[in-house]
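Structure tokens
________________
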Amino acid sequence: MDKIQQDLFITTVLSNWELAVKRASKVFDSYNDEEILLPIAAGKNRVVYLLGHLTAVHDRMLPLLGLGERQYPQLDDLFISNPDNAATALPPIQELRSHWMATNALLTEKLSAWTPGEWLERHTAVSAEDFAKEPYRNKLNIVLNRTGHLSYHLGQLALLKK
């Protein structure tokens, strides 16, 4: 792969990641602090739950990709380990919004600094032995997977008509 192809490869992956984050941010920003508490549909997750869930998932990417320690591990109990529950006390909405922005800004900054070779390195959840057998279990795969995950939840958010 020559330098032009490498640059195109990196630009393609990063632009898709950034586009998905930008779209989600726009959706979350379109809800005021009362509207964000609405369920997407009867009996389904609230918008705020998806904000917290996606923030926690993206925060988990930091150590998974070898980019540093998590910033908000306290979000796991509310937004990953347990389903949405309107009776559960949540962190302040502005705090969740801030965590969302900070997490994605940090991830994008770190991902933008990677060389093409770094994208293809193993992530921290796969052993060296397993990676030797399955080299597709790399950092690129994680970013593509999480971009798809974010897009999936954006599809859910589209069900809520404002």
Residues 53 and 80 are 6 Å apart (CA to CA).
